[in-house]
Structure formats: C-alpha cells, structure tokens
Amino acid sequence: MALILLRHTTPEVPPNVCYGQTDLDVTATFETESAKACAALPTVRLVVTSPLIRCRRLADFVGQQLKLPVEEDCRLMEMDFGTWEGQAWSAVPRAEIDAWAEDFLHARPHGGESVAELRARTTDVLMDWSDSYGSTLVVTHSGVIRAALATGDTVGDFNTRIDFGNFITTPQAQGVPN
Questions:
Q1: Nearest Cα to 22, choosing from 157, 141, 121?
Q2: By three-state DSSP, how is residue 25 classified?
Q3: For 39-59, how does the pLDDT look when each residue is reduced to its tens digit (9 = 90+)?
Q4: Which end of the chain, N or C, is less packed with Cβ atoms under 10 Å?
C-alpha cells in the first residue's frame, strides 16, 4: 500500500546548523504549516512518526485533525551525526567533511551513523509499515526521505529536496514494494 512521507515543519534552530537527532521543538509557524500540510494530504488510515518532537507534534496534529491513531517508531529518526550535532556546518573540521565525501556511504568521521546505516534502517522501517495498514502517513525527516528515494550510492543519488511540511508518496521509494 501507499506510504506518504511527510517532512516535519520548520524546527527551532539557527540556519546552517547540523541537528540530526537533536530533539528540537518547532517554530511559531507550526500551526500554519501543519494546517497547510494536513489539508494537502491524501486519505490515510494511520499516522506513524519519528519520536523527535518536531515530528511528533506534527503527527499528533494530523492525528487529531483526521481522527487517526498515531504510532511512534524510533527507526524514523533523522541520521545520527554524532559529534557534529548542534555545530554550525562551517565549524565542522574540513578533514572530517573530506573524509565523508571520500566514502559517502560508509564514512563516520563524526562517530554517528553512516549513510549506509541510515539507508538500511529506512528500508527496514518502510517495508514494515508499507504492508501494515493501507495508506500510512509517515512523519519523518529529510534524511530518511532522501534515503528512501535514493536509487544509487553517490551523493547525487541522495539529493532529493523536500521542504518543511511537504510530502511525497511512495512506492517509488527504494525498497518499498509496489
């Protein structure tokens, strides 16, 4: 069945900061962004969400508006950027960025999660939820959505852009059955 992957609304974080699994709240535009996202959604039967506040708040909003149950799944969390979490991207040591670029899929210069680990986790969680309840709304993060849609192993294959409060519909996501 279809999975609708919805990115959380705008988080309360300065621009150009790496925040991955840092548990951030949302900005004052939350209600407006959430109402717009909810109004645009196709019919769904279940909402499943990352436990991080920026996703959980949106999932709860949608669940209340559509009178749907909301389930949490920690596998929907954003990539763990380890020591880079909370740092401005410009403060991340250049040698670490270069190491990541040299082995995009497997490098972990930050000590957190590799892109390959994120992709494997994403494939597993989406496979589990795709067969469960019919059309399911998955409230998650940009990294998870990029991993779901990546068709190869290069940086360019992970370049899908999805704005805050927007969604895509699978099964075009890699590893998710038709």
A1: 141
A2: coil
A3: 999 999 999 999 999 999 999
A4: C
